[in-house]
Amino acid sequence: MNWSFDITLKTRAILYKFLEQFSLEQLNTVPKGYRNSIYWNIMHVVVTQQLLVYGLSGLPMLIDSQLIEAFRKGTKTEEDASQKDVDLLKGLLTSTIEQTQRDYAAGIFTNYTTYTVSTKSTLTNVEEALEFNNFHEGIHLGYILAMKNTIISQ
What we know:
Blueprint: H1 2-21, H2 24-28, H3 38-53, H4 65-71, H5 83-105, E1 115-116, E2 122-123, H6 126-152
Antiparallel strand pairs: 1-2
């Protein structure tokens, strides 16, 4: 699983750079043709990882339940993020994965509720959830890269 965690951390480092490079206004912009902002996409990957790994394992999640409700699958950008929100997200990007690594090494993921994802694949254990999570984060990184060009040209 070290490979899977390494990929996640590298993706998160790229996402972190967007939080550093873009202004708060740019992070909150929902470009024409999109449903969500860059900020929403990045917070969504944090929330989704928690739901797929901890939630479906029946374990307490590492993030606040309000974040889960606001950024889970099926939600959209409802309000602008503040600088405080962005700073929180910067911390969560790395801390949640580092804690997941420690928890995985400690063997706490002993149960898993099967779950069929949007690609019609069924996750049956935490290892599959971690691998699917990388795919999911890649999709949202792709959205952000496409949005970046639209936002910069505005």
